[in-house]
Protein 1
Amino acid sequence: MSAQHSQGTRPTKLETKFLGETASIKTTFTGNKALNIEEPLLFEVGSYDKSGVDLPEPENVRSRLGGLERKTPIGLPGLSEPETMRHYVRLSQKNYAIDLGTYPLGSCTMKHNPRLNEKMARLPGFADIHPLQPISSVPGAIELMDYLSYWLLELTGAYGVALSPRAGAHGELCGMMAIKAAHTHAKNTHKTTILVPDSAHGTNPATAALLGYKVKAVPAREDGTVSVEAIQELATDEVAGLMLTNPNTCGLFERDIIKIADAIHNVGGYFYCDGANFNAIVGKVRPIDLGVDAMHINLHKTFSTPHGGGGPGSGPVVFSEALAPFAPLPFLIRDMDGLSLRETCGENTSEQHPFGRLAAFHGQMGMFVRALSYMLSHGADGLKQASEDAVLNANYIRAGLRDVMSQPYGDQNCMHEVLFDQCFLKDTDVSTLDFAKAMIDEGYHPMTMYFPLVVPGAMLIEPTESESLSSLDMFIATLRDLVQSAHNGEIERFKQAPELTPVKRLDETKAARSPVLRWQDGS
């Protein structure tokens, strides 16, 4: 790399610099860029009149579908095995992942997934068990679930835990259903309202409404936190509970959290904490000690299990002493006979009042193994350091950009994520979306955009503890260069971005509102 390029000189438009020489990216006959191969849709690769396999028609076949047999061809293109493999492998190479580079999504905690976790999850006895086999044949798996529960209880200060929720939103539903069950058990029919801050995740008011509650919004203070006075004013006798994220979605710790919890408890309500941002405080503070009654924990966000991709999720919920009796079935119990999985409530469980079941089976064993592997490999001190490093990294980015990018709530320290707004782009004709698209050409997945909704043009950046100092420095330098370009009037760099991706800028609004979900010839 030339000295000039290493100092930050960047190529213009579609030019590349190598050893000081300029060469335009040429158009190829195939449309490919070297070994970065363009990939059409599966329907464009294959055809309907051929098949990738050559099998004889079976004789004397009698249908067992009771008149529900397919009447027309399935309508899928036929491909050979090599064609099929190449298609999906090429598509996989166009997908971005934490293993490829910095993934700064705020409020999503895209952290590194250690390969040790994967090795543990593939051990016999964990990887090959089935939910319908006898409980007596999987004592190791049951023991692991109990040990994971122990760690979750220790880290949160809770009295009970439900492992069955499949993801954060599912866990959120679980916690709120426990709150509703507690009020129903106490015959609190007047408890009809849930308080939700304006900056909350969208699932919070949606979950409350799904359960039949009225939702009252709680405005934020000028510094981005929730006002105790506002909570006290809204905390009337019909309030069933509060749903609050801490640290909140502005990346700030709610410093008045205990007073807020007291205000809710004083009117007989419960405090549900959205645990999406638990990665910022693990080992530093126990949520139950802050007055929390229920909190879901995203294992993928805090304890490094795989995030997204259509795979299995896991969102355990921890409960205070007041709500633990209302945790859903099934749950683990330990008695004179050892550990067992309680599927029903019998006569000897009069102290338990489970609200029912959330799922057919207990949970995702692969996620449990990975999370516990992460916990044991770090230890209590390592988990605490991970939280501290996540907060340090976010504040390092804040300090590196605060003179060129604007913070909506002043220059105050953040927690694990730093929030910027669009004010620094004023009079540049560059929007938050334009800025994010230009980041893609520079090799970065954009940060979370336009969230939280209370901040115009929000840019929420979360580096997590996974990023090194050098990767943070390069990220900061890149964003500073983009800011400089915007103020220099280099609008084409933003309005045309991304230019270096297989697919250029799309009309995402139209794609979301008018999706084409079915292939038609000629479309």
Protein 2
Amino acid sequence: CVIPHLWHVIQGGIYHRQGGQHFNPFVYSDIRTITDHTHRSAHGGARVYLSDAFPESQHGRVFMANIHEHAVLSDVLERKGSGFVGHHGDDFLVANNAQWVGFSMEIGPEGGVYVLDWHDGDICGKEVLNGETGRIFRIMPEKSLAQNWEGRYADLQKLTDRQLAELQTSKSDWHARRARVILQSRAAKGKLSNDVYDQLRKIYQSHSNPDWRLRAMWTLHITGGFQPNDLAEALKAKDEYVRAWAIQLLCEDKSPSEAVLAEFAGMAAEDPSPVVRLYLASAMQRVNKNSSWEIAEALIAHSEDADDHNLPHMIWFGLEPLVAEDPDKGLALAEKSRIPLIAEYTARRTVDADATDRLIAVIEKKPKTLISMLEGMRDGLEGRNDLTAPSNWSSVYSALQKSDAKVAGLARDIAQLFGDTEAARQSLTTLKDKGTPQDDRRKAMNALAAQQRPELVKELPGLLEDPAVRTEAIRAIAGYDDEKLGALLLKKYPQLNAGEKREAVLTLSARPRYGRMLTNALKQKTIPKSDVPVYVARQLRRVVGSGFVETWGPIDELPSSENAAYNKYQRLLTTDALAKASPQRGKLLFQRTCGSCHKMFGEGGIIGPDLTGSNRTNTNYILSNVLNPSEEIQDDYKMVVVTTRDGRTYSGNVVGENTRQITLRVVGQDAVVINKSEVQSREATDQSMMPPGLFDMLRDEEVLDLVAYLRAGESLQ
């Protein structure tokens, strides 16, 4: 392993792998040991802090194993609002063995870090193929800063209760945690001495180190050492984390007292700590409904939490079932919320609860949260074709049209979703006016197409000639089963650019009539077969039937024997050849062939997995995923095919779903919202949307450039 100077790795032995069981004897851990947004922990093992054996310069970092990079990475923790964020730290350890798969990490009694190495070519570990190859590594500094003391390496089970309690003030987190486990076990068996509680209370009540106070607090709780009112008194503690943990511990059995609930409501309004407010938001799901409403009402008054990365969502998680049950009460809160997300989500949930008329009545009053509530209303209505405007909408809409541009625009969007003829006329006027900003014209096009407005059909031929909205016009054609539009799109096809051609192929594969026309174009070679991705071909097989296969040929067979392909590209992708390749050209190729689905270093699509933290440096890993992408597919990336009652077919990944709607992520497009009442069939396939023969479509030089880019580091960006 390659690690910084002054560190070394000791291989500790072999362990028998049984599905990758972790060894984490945590009882409680402080929230300060968790990161909310670590960037490179995907497919990684457990995270740990460095212990007291490591240099002070390493404190404030969290360490995690990353199975794809065969490494132990670090993130630097930064306090932010109610929690922490992690920023990229130095790569702490990089293995020189592609089978090194860090799977779990733990701190040991001497302060070292122990890492389970799955040690296998199968990095995902779905099957235990070689049960005897697992290893344990210990990571230690060359010179440990851990202080030794008498009994550091003793058997903790043989220590007295008093000695175990004293370990709650130890610099060794391992000893403190193990001592808590043992004390909890002794208490459960009725073997814990009473005087140990006095010792723990002294630490908890008066020690200057808040971390050690927390340790004593946890120990008292799990051993039954607290008196009935002790935790209630802790709600007034000076340290914010002691107050926060008091909230959590009081709610563990979901039955805090009325006095405690009243205190919660007061804290939600007045406590200055966002950490405490986060724990109160979590508690909303563990208390009675009336108390949840009171806590929510106090929490949404904190405008300083509007941009917090935890609090708005945590408040909503507790509030959402209450709004579904009592929309009127939810709307009353939304009117005065100082957190925009709460107002937006409440409005959206009210629509789902069939209380749109009551939402409109609140909107009529033009509350301070008007824009957020209109956005939520729009999102709740989107994708539904069974809508009738409530009786009170017309007058409210007229009033909103006299408001500022933002409000008026949102009102028009909603009116369009209701099928309002006047709103459609305004959208059509906007669309046809070439002097209007392009974003507004595209938005108008999308609104008209979503409702399949008949007024749009006669405008589409002319809009196909307008580069500013041509892509949206091509997409809009998919909403209409019109042979003339399909023929026009095929005629226009040779003049389209690459992106527009992709959209045209997607549109022509959306309906049986269009699909047969595209199949005939492929047969006559007026559209090259290479323009149709394999996942679109699979969709066309469903849309057109066996006639498409007769033209295309077998779809699911690999373009060449898999073994032969492996051998071919392994011979091509040598170290010398890759060294001469151009990662810069490979980046452009990636953007053209892969970037619509995959993201790397923050750029690209999200149909497929983010490749940044994948095992990109391993050529065999790249080949296995490119040559046979359907071999292993995560559930989130399985292709779902949805056909609606009007004959349109969609293929994509499900990214959102509720009782009314399905949201699909489609290649090259924004998310598509489909009303469930319009769904005729829905099927999840075991096929990847990625074509299995990607390399066969490229020249050898292009394959080398693409792989060189995939293997390149972030510096190329």
Protein 3
Amino acid sequence: MSDVTNELSRILQSNGGAPFLFVGSGFSRRYLGSDDWKGLLRRFCAEIREFDYYFASTDGDLPMTASLIARDFHDLWWNSAKYEESREKFRETSTSVQSALKNEIAQFLSQLPLEGLPDEQIQREISALKNLNVDGIITTNWDLLLEELFPGYRVFIGQEELLFSNPQAIAEIYKIHGCASRPKSLILTSEDYHDFHEKNPYLAAKLITLFIEHPIIFIGYAVQDPHIQRIIFSIASCLANDKLEKFCENLVFVRRSHGRSSSIQKITFSHAGRSVTATVLEVDDFCEVYAAIDAGKRKIPARILRYCKEQMYELVKSAEPEKKIAVVDIDELDASEQVEFVVGIGLAKNHRQQQSEIASEGQSNLARSGYRGVSIADLFDDLPRERSTFDADELLRVAFPSFARSNATYIPVFRYLRAAGVDDSEKLVCSEYKDAARVIEKIKKRGYRVRGYRSQYNSNWSDKTTTDILSGLDPERVTLILPFQSPMKVEREPLRKFLLENSGSSFRDPYRSYYKKLACYYDYLAFGFEL
């Protein structure tokens, strides 16, 4: 292990809580190659005036720069034929001068490919990130990369949703500056930042327990970032000296070393008589950081723990808990169809022995509540099997609501709709499976193909059969080329066998994401219908 890995491991081990990530724009620039804030604003003022004019007019104040651009972009958006389709889509929600710019920024970010840059090191880091079992993520980013990396995590968008919801502080993503999936939520202009800072004390109160009980690892921020320092000092101002020391121990910033050797240092910054000291890890290979986080991860996935904690919370706050709680002997548990959540009191050894005796008889049948623990990965494993292991109705009603909220795009869905008796768009509209319809809409918007490989398909493979492509390319290349075959040409059975023999987990990133696109293409071809 490197010194950075060892030091971060020590920090994590000294704290009883699993870490939270606090993710900034540098994270998306590193993994997606996306614009920084200036670059994003520059992109959308190109049709109006030079960005430097707006920037100079505000003495370099970026929120104020965004406000000026938004005013001028408002006129362009409402009058230009270029934005006619966008106006129809967002007309009802475009209620302010800022709306037009937010709409277009949100659309642009929503269409970013989420597989990550093709650089080998970047792909190694993305693979490591996907395997991290962190308790949660706080971010000021608007794009959908984190939802792609952590598909089982519950997403809270904006301060309002975080302040007035019931977060469990596990398996959650807090998008405190809004999200591209909801353009109105973006914190972009000076007016937005004024409102955000007015509510900072409430946000700090909501986050204070996290910052005391969990290591907070900042990735993609400069230590001097004024917006992050404002949040940090809002929390620090509420703490007594003994708690402040613990708070400082939990603050870890990760930044690039730009070719220098990896290093560890302490940095102190002050505001209004308060000083905060944070640990700064300088690395070029972020896997040194992710290895330390991974070494101390829980064996139980965070999304499962969140479900358990949420159910217990609902039980405790209930006015009539006696209607939700019962004492059931362990031997009776498997026979009870009413049990949705289990808390055991007793010796774990005895429980494991009893449970193993029950499991052999009931393992093939998931209890209804078990569908809440089904992951998207489970669906990809199930899709190419000749017979599904799931009850389609239960899966669509119990598991798909969380899938639809997760913002993961590629999820097998048509197989389960058809098995539940939904085989055309009219039946889908009349059904209760609204979350499945949302999943289909997201896939339809993104498509099944990886742009940039059409020319290779046209040049070398357009006259070949599915079997030719499967036998003539390695599995990774198959995921890129085969989706370009038209639905009429694809041989479904050879494709099904390919998916069965090459599970998604056997691919390295970004090909794991390409596998998901191909699998969903098969799902559509074998079971799907047009909306």
Protein 4
Amino acid sequence: MSEVRLVLLDAESDLSGTCHGSTADRIIAALSAEPETIGELEAAFARFERPSNQRFLAWFRPEINDEPYDAGVVVIDLAARLIACDSTYSSASHRGSVDYQNGDCATKVRVHYRLPDDWRIIGDAWNWRPQAESRRRERLANPPLDARAVLYGQPLLEYIARECFCTFQDSQADNPLALANNSLTEDRDWHGLDDEGSVRTEPDRSTIRDIHARWLLDPRADLLGQAPREILLSRMTFIEKDLQDRELQWTTQGHCPPGLDPIMHAYRYGGFGRHEIVIYYYLVRSLLWSCRDSVAMLLAKPESKMMTVGDFLTTEVDRLEKSRDEWLNTPDPEYHGRTPHSIIDRERQRLPEGMSGEDAIIDHDCPLCQMMADGLSGPMFWHLDGCNMDWEFAFSFEATREEWEAGQRTWEDFNKKFEAEQAERETLGVKYPSSGYSDPNYVWERSFVAGQCDGMPLELRLFGIGSNLADLIVDLKHPTENRLMIDQLSRDFGNLREVARSKDLATSAALAEPVINRFCDTLAEAAAAREDIREKCDELSQRLHRFFEPPGERNECELGDDDIPF
């Protein structure tokens, strides 16, 4: 018994027919894309089954036939966000995984999904209609809110212009030139944010933060009584998890899964993910500083005394609109050349920000970055975490102030404990090397590799060599950079990686000795040129000569289930 009756309904149409139970499972999984119509559901189904020339619902009839068939019946009402599943083949759930269908058969690739919390799942397929009607009425009474029209549109721009004009006009009434003298047109730092090295004064920074926080925290009638911050965070967790599922799918399938079409309901009215929240923070902060500069220039003119806030809004809102659009569509090197708009667009399409290992390299001189680039065949994923945002509650990702305060207490307790430990070490006169490693004879300052680890697998030994080499390369960049030596060490490490990862054991054995000898010769040249790194070069050469030794008896560095190799 593997066939089920499947009933699909949206606000304007309904279909029913029979299909394999696994197909019904994939259709339930497609609800993760938050479709509102049967057409959107078909498009989302492509996440879990390769589209064919024929619509997968082509044989369904335009009717509601909820009579059980074979294994049972599954009813999905998109308008009510209700699933009624009474089947011996499987049961519906808010999260799970299904086998990807490649068009010919089900594969062994498991694709994960999770549904929004507002989907209701019941097992009573005989009594689904009253519940569906009730939920439809409830949802109809609460039509979708286009929050972005408020958060990016005229309401935001008018708020910024009004608050900046009133606030900075009052604060600088006695000395308008002071505000003007602190207004420069060049970028002050990343995304126009103020920092310690800018010409911005602390009172200005504090004022900008306060205006920004009020915008986020104050409830608004055009947001149905909600504050912008509530809107921003309300769906963030769900969107993050959906994107994580798509990242895993991309990794296992080897290609990017299809995204949401911009005409779909979930794209137009869906929630905000973390990427958009972070970018929105920088956008608002940039517009605030820009508007503050406009006020400063205005106050430097004699005629400013006659200008009202309404006069200022007349010109400033249009200028801020142009500034907003320019900011969103300007490629940013911090985003690997992406524009803020493109990052927001991909997140709204539920498409991960994928890149190759080569693109993900931060420092081409770093041996571990080189290992990452050539050691991973699948995609890597790029994320924004908001680490440079202000730490006040208004700008945090905690949903409630209580959660934020609990997090602050955790940090305070950690800092107190750390400071107490440091004070106790000073009292006892305990001395450690500069990086804090407990062995006073340890030569490395920035990396640590457990001793006597020559019995480890080659890939882990390679990681250990790369860690110490990265430490050494940092030394070779200071006080003056020895580019020739750094490039030669990078080539030597590249040759070692190639030999260590060779599938041809005979070739690997034949090349091992000359590759290691050449690597050690370079280290000897570095030691001769820099006496201060001789000990590191000698220690790394010793490790290299033991690199290909076969594993021996269990030694002190062999790992248990909970151990960390480096």
